[in-house]
Write a structure and sequence with these properties.
The protein is built from twelve helices and eight strands. The chain is an alpha/beta fold. The chain has a single domain (7-233), classed as TIM Barrel. An eight-stranded parallel β-barrel has the order 1-2-3-4-5-6-7-8, surrounded by six helices. The protein starts with 12 loop residues before the first strand and ends in a 5-residue tail after the last helix.
Length: 301
Amino acid sequence: MEDLNMYFSKDFGLGTALITPFTQNGEVDYKALKQQVEFQIENGVNYLVALGTTSESVTLSRQEREKVVQTILETNNNRCPVVVGVGGYNTAEIIKTIRELPKEVHAVLSVTPYYNRPSQEGLYQHYREIALSCEKPIILYNVPSRTSVNLLSQTTLRLAYDFSNIVAVKEASGVMSQIMEIIRQKPQKFQVLSGDDAIAFPLMTAGANGLISVIGNAFPQQMSDLIQKSLEGDYQTARKIHYQLLPLIMAIFEDGNPAGVKKLMSLQGRIINKLRLPLVPVNQTVAEKIETLLKQLSFDK
């Protein structure tokens, strides 16, 4: 198994769930993707997350997904860890895909099966098979608002204690008591990562180990500072960043992700505001709100 201690300190810190930029005619914009990887690394992220929800991975062909991962790996050039999202409702197919990943991929982020809605025992057996079949470290991903199934704290903890290569959970349930129960009872080396920008700061004060961020696409330095200051116990500084960005964080999710963050990044001049169907750009009201909040945003001390 890949030794993540070679790349991470005690805590994972900030990872950005990278968007997939598109050209005006809908092709993957690999030049813009390379620029985004450089922007993230230069601004202090601890690791990169490819093919997550924010990447619109389900609208990419297999060939595009492979090229996106390869582009990120080549641009990164082993400067920070790269985590790749591999999830779905077919356990055998997930195992096959993980085994085919490039050796340079450091870990896998695997969302709970969606659509077929397994029981808690089904979820345990699903991840058990992946853990037993694959050498790469596995980060569980719980996002019931998208999958219609909640990986309960008891199941997460059972997996964390039973399999050493299940190293973390990205928790996006939004259920604070559930997440804190995992933090309270987890094995020492197991990491709890917020999957929600808006509640990352309170979770960090409760003992979480980091965040996989959406708004980090647009503000990697500020989100890196928020997470690092929280890990250092400087909650006053982290709190200030949290509340400076919170209105914009809320706005970019009003009309769907990644539509909101893509609008934000287009206003920054980083990408074209293009998505693939069935996703569409945010509506005019939300677009204007994002633009107004961006203009008002100031990080002056």
